[in-house]
Amino acid sequence: NAGVTQTPKFRILKIGQSMTLQCTQDMNHNYMYWYRQDPGMGLKLIYYSVGAGITDKGEVPNGYNVSRSTTEDFPLRLELAAPSQTSVYFCASSYSGGFYYEQYFGPGTRLTVT
Amino acid sequence: EDQVTQSPEALRLQEGESSSLNCSYTVSGLRGLFWYRQDPGKGPEFLFTLYSAGEEKEKERLKATLTKKESFLHITAPKPEDSATYLCAVQEGNAGGTSYGKLTFGQGTILTVHP
Known about the structure:
Order of helices and strands of chain B: EEEEEEEEEEE
Radius of gyration of chain A: 13 Å
Largest sheet of chain A: 7 strands, mixed
Structural class of chain B: mainly beta
Number of strands of chain B: 11
Order of helices and strands of chain A: EEEEEEEEEEE
Oligomer: heterodimer
Helix content of chain A: under 10%
Distance between the termini of chain B: 41 Å
Distance between the termini of chain A: 36 Å
């Protein structure tokens, strides 16, 4: 049981390039989330999904896109990378988005845009 | 808008020196308050969930408590391996319909325990 896995661990992008951050969970969780964490700041929600085929925006969705074709996978797409997207990105999942269920986090992807 | 403020931003302790971390929150209806531990270069690791004022939970040297306005994470006789960033997050209640489990995080407290 690997939990939540993310790839890559590190990535450097040039301004204007695109990339996809991968996230997979093997806990059969129906809710999945993408967060970004900037130094000295709390985690901010980018996008979330309540199940395959259903996604919605979080607090900071601009510049990102997501898809959810399976229960296990929830990739995050960055189009036209900008320096403001330099951050650490965490994927998380939970059994339910309802009350009382904790979220389990992946190890993160550290992205630098130069 | 939900707000979560953690204090202090950083805390240095000697091994065995007990102390507390604070998490103050403003939320229209609290459904759950979560504590996470985050080691450098890793994702947050779940520690506790507290649901109502007066509730307490313990795990090894950690004890979390909750009031209507704040939560404390008490660390008793800490060891160097307790060094980490501790995050708290609140989940707002939803009067009707489903909730996607939105968490609002504080900025964290960096704890360093010296041997």
